[in-house]
Amino acid sequence: MAGIAELRQMLEDVKAQVKASALDAFKEEFKGVFERHPEVLALRWTQYTPYFNDGDPCIFGVNDLSIKTKDMNPEDAEDDDGFEDLYSKKHPELYAWWGSVECDEAFLAAFGDHAKITVTRDELEIDEYDHD
Question: Per-residue pLDDT for the chain (132 aa), expressed as one digit of tens each?
């Protein structure tokens, strides 16, 4: 029977394996998105566990996807970086795809808590996200 120290190491090893596998799976998924949608320049979302939720349990969640496209009017951008929220009427296939990949546990394993993730064809950037 394994001791506590060995059990702790086993858990850390499994977490590292899950993170690596989740990152690989997401990178492959994103590659497919950029191949199917050449107009998309970047994807971005935030994910976190709320600090307070009006007495309800604070549960980790992945927020809505924002995108940057080649043909986007800068005046339509909803932030200074040129991203707009993904709307079902404007981008129905991407909207459906985002709903299909929703798996909070996989997102948490791959990208961590309190994170802002930006994905381009060539780069995946994970930044700390302050959601106060």
Answer: 679 999 999 999 999 999 999 999 999 999 999 999 999 999 999 999 988 878 888 899 999 999 999 887 766 666 668 888 888 788 899 999 999 998 999 999 999 999 999 999 999 999 999 987
Q: What is the distance between the alpha carbons of residues 130 and 132, in angstroms, rounded to a whole number?
A: 6
- Asked whether 117 and 44 are in contact (CB, 8 A), the reply is yes
Tokens of 28: 């492959």
Q: Are strands 115-120 and 40-48 parallel, antiparallel or unpaired?
A: antiparallel
Burial 12-44 (b: 16+ CB within 10 A, else e): eeeeeeebeebbeebeeebeebbeebeebbbbb
Q: Can you say how many angstroms the Cα of residue 76 is from the centroid of all Cα atoms in its chain? A: 22
What distance in Å separates the CA atoms of residue 99 and residue 76, rounded to the nearest whole number?
23
Do 59 and 47 touch, CB atoms closer than 8 A? no
What's the predicted TM-score (pTM) here?
A: 0.86
99 and 88 in contact (C-beta within 8 Å)?
no
